[in-house]
Amino acid sequence: MSDYRRIADRIADDIASGRLRPGQQLPPQRVFARRRGIAGSTAGRVYAELVRRGLVVGEVGRGTFVRAAAAGPYGQALIEAPAAATSPNSAPVNLELNYPSAPGQSELLAPALAPLLRPDVLTEALRPAPANGTAAAREAAADLLATPGWRPDPGRVLFAGNARQAIAATLASLVRPGGRVGVEPLTYPLVKQIAARLGITLVALEADGEGPRPESVAAAHRTAPLSALYLQPTLHNPTSVTTSEPRRVEIARVVRELGLPVVEDRIWSFLHPHSPAPLAAHAPGLVHVVDGLSKRVAPGLTVGFLVVPEQRVDAVAAAVRSGGWSAGRFALEAGTRWTADGTVARLVAAKRADAAGRQRLVAEELAGFAVRSDPLTYYAWWELPAPWRADTFTAAAAALGIAVTPGPAFVVDPNRTPDAVRLGLASAAVPDLTRALRTLAGLARGGGAGAGTPLPGGRTG
C-alpha cells in the first residue's frame, strides 16, 4: 500500500474514534508534511485521499476541516442527517459557487457565436488580442459600463481575461511588493490571494452601514502610507452594502487630497439599476474601474474590463501583457457582439428578476435569523446563532451535502473573525436552493452536534 494511503488510513481511524472531531481543522499541508517528515507532495496526496473518501472538506487558502460524523469500512464517511437535511439521494448543493444563469441563456447566446465560426472570421478571432482590444470592443464596453451621469472614455478601456485578472493587473501596476492597500474589513477572498502573490499587505479600513469611513482612509494612510485602495462600493460582496452618493463624494475627496489610487470593483453592480455613480465619476484621475462579463453572461467565455485614468493606460496595459492576463480575441469578439445586439441587456434583466426571487426564498426560509442581504443580490451574509462557529457550521453543512463559504474567508484582520457564512444563491437550481436553505435553517436551530461540549478551539456550546 502506498505511503500516502497508510497515512490517510491513520487519520481516518482518528476520525472514526473521535480523536478528530467534526469541524476540527487539520493543519496546513506544509505543516502536516513537516510534522510527519514527509514530502509536501505526499501531504497533498493524503489530503486529496481524505477528500475523496468524504472525510474532510476544504479549499486552498481557507483550510481543511473534518466532515464525517462516523466512519465505516475503508474509512468511508457515514452521515446520519437530521430530518431537515437533504435527501441522501440528492446531489450536493454548492452555495459557494455564485454564477447566475438565466432561463434560455444558451439560446440567447448562440446566434452571436454563429458568424464567428466561419473559417475566415474564426482565423482572425483565434489570434491574440491586445490589451486595448479593438475599437468596436472599446465602444461596446463603454456603453455596457455607462451609468446615469458617467460614461467611460473608450480610449481608457482595457481588457483582461476576466475580472480577477483585471484586479491583479491593476494592483501589480500600482503597488510594489511590500506596499499597503486599504480594503473593507470583509473583502473578496481572491483579492487576498492576489495580494499574497504580489507581496502586498492588505489593511482593513473601518466601515459602517454605508461602507468605508473616509476618516479611516486618512488614518490608515497616516499610520504608514497606503499605495492604493481596493473597494466594492456597489453591492459589496459579502455584505451587500451599497455606499451612498454622499459617502462616495466624501471618499473621493479624501483620495484626491491624498493622491491615493483606487481600484473600484463593480462586478456585481449590473444587478443594481439605480446605483449611485461610480467613484470614478468623482475622482477620474485616480480611480481604476474593474468589471467583467462572467456574472452578466457566463463564466466559461468571459472578458474582464478595466477603465483606467488617462495617464495610466500604458502602465496597466503593460501589466496585463506581462502577467499573461490578456483577453482571448474570440471571447472579446463574442462579448462585443452580445453587447451590441442587446443579448447582455436581456440577460441582465432576467438575472435581476432571478436574484430577487432567490432573495425572497432567503427571507422566507431564514426568517428570524441575522441575515444581511439586499433584495437585488445573489448572496447573503448570515451571522450564525450561538454556539455555532463559522468553521464548525461549514463542516456540519458539508456533511449534509451543502457547501457554504465560512466568514473568515473574507476577513482581512485575523483578530476580527466573524461567526458567519456567506451563501451564494446563484448557481443552485431553485428547488435545490430551497431545500438547502431549509436544511441549513434546521441545522442552525439545532445548535450544533455536541452543544454543551467543547468545540474545536476550546469554545464550549
How would you describe what is shown here?
Helix 7 crosses helix 8, helix 7 (163-174) crosses helix 11 (313-322) and helix 9 (214-223) packs parallel to helix 10 (245-258). The radius of gyration is 23 Å and the shape is globular. It is 39% helix and 14% strand. The strands form five sheets. It has a seven-stranded mixed sheet, sandwiched between helices. It starts with a helix and ends in a 16-residue tail after the last helix. It contains 15 helices and 18 strands. It is α/β, with parallel strands linked by helices and 461 residues long. It has three domains: 3-75, Winged helix-like DNA-binding domain superfamily/Winged helix DNA-binding domain (Arc Repressor Mutant, subunit A, Orthogonal Bundle), CATH 1.10.10; 93-98 and 345-445, Aspartate Aminotransferase, domain 1 (Alpha-Beta Complex), CATH 3.90.1150; 112-341, Type I PLP-dependent aspartate aminotransferase-like (Major domain) (Aspartate Aminotransferase, domain 2), CATH 3.40.640.10. It has helices at 3-17, 29-36, 40-52, 105-113, 119-125, 135-145, 163-174, 189-198, 214-223, 245-258, 313-322, 329-340, 343-365, 390-399, 430-445, and strands at 25-26, 56-59, 63-66, 93-94, 157-160, 180-183, 201-204, 207-208, 211-212, 228-231, 262-265, 287-292, 304-307, 370-372, 379-383, 402-403, 405-406, 420-424. The longest helix has 23 residues, at 343-365.
